[in-house]
Amino acid sequence: MPDTHDRSDEAIEVSALKADSFGRIALMRGSDGTRFVRRDLRHVPLWLRLPAWWLARREARGLAAVAGMRDVPQLLAWDGRRLDRSYMPGAAMYQRPPHGDLIYFRRARRLLQGLHRRGLAHNDLAKEANWLVLDDGRPAIIDFQLAVRGHPRSRWMRLLAREDLRHLLKHKRMYCRAALTPVEKRVLKRTSWLRDLWFRTGKPVYRVVTRRILKWEDNEGQGPKP
Ligand SMILES: Nc1ncnc2c1ncn2[C@@H]1O[C@H](COP(=O)(O)OP(=O)(O)O)[C@@H](O)[C@H]1O
Ligand SMILES: [Mg+2]
Questions:
Q1: Phi, psi for residue 224 in degrees, rounded to 5
Q2: In the UniProt record, does the keyword Transferase occur (predicted)?
Q3: Where are the domains of the chain?
Q4: How far does CA 48 lie from the centroid of its chain?
Q5: Among 56-70, 173-187, 209-223, the least confident range
Q6: How far away, in angstroms, is 182 Cα from ligand 2 center?
Q7: If we measure between CA atoms, which residue out of 71, 66, 104 comes closest to residue 88?
């Protein structure tokens, strides 16, 4: 997608938000004063450029699928090196936990349904860092690097949507346990073959890659250790 917003060159960095092997994320201020979040791939080591580009492109496409929706970042620009998205003021769920906040979880569920209705599964919602509690208390979802698009009613998308929902319900169980409905408890209990496969094969590989090779923190974005 071409650079469609005018902030790219005159923008100044306000603060660094995060840096890892897949890029540097910074809060920026554009020439018109609006804040936005930039992922910059120019700091990525050469051997990781391809996967980093692939993940950023996936995020750009995911964000395009939910353009215009409230409480998700808006895609501002993606030129193959820099991905700009709108900034949403708030804090991550683990920084400002929605203890006993039933309204937060009700809205979060509606937000998630909105994504799924537009044919997008997020796939990374177990991380509290990817759920925001906005300044007015509303939930927001960020980080669409692993998002998958498809027909909302296909079996595959329905399975992924259920996994997204299960991740949300785990957070609800953590912060709002008494409010879990019988149906939600059932969703939490019912595990899918996809999850079993992930725990048996994907997760051990992911751990080796992220901890040994990329040297990410053990608990990245998961919130406080138990
Ligand atoms: N649109 C946004 N609004 C507010 N904060 C954001 C936004 N995008 C990212 N952040 C902040 O930057 C951090 C890293 O962004 P994220 O897209 O999750 O990158 P990563 O894929 O590396 O986890 C987030 O945990 C959040 O604190
Ligand atoms: Mg993240």
A1: -65, 145
A2: yes
A3: 12-86, 90-213
A4: 20
A5: 209-223
A6: 30
A7: 71
DSSP state of 43: G
Contact status, residue 176 vs residue 100, Cβ threshold 8 Å: yes
State the virtual CA torsion across 49, 55, 57, 59 in degrees, nearest 10.
Answer: -150
**Which ligand is closest to the CA of 127, given by its number?**
2
pLDDT per position as a tens digit, 164-180: 999 999 999 999 999 99
Kindly state the tokens that stand for 158: 């329905």
Supply the CATH classification number for the domain 90-213: 1.10.510.10
Kindly report, residue by residue over 89-145, the tens digit of the pLDDT: 999 999 999 999 999 999 999 999 999 999 999 999 999 999 999 999 999 999 999
Q: Which CATH number is associated with domain 12-86?
A: 3.30.200.20
Closest ligand 1 atom to residue 55 Cα is 21
Whether 56 and 77 have beta carbons less than 8 Å apart is answered as no
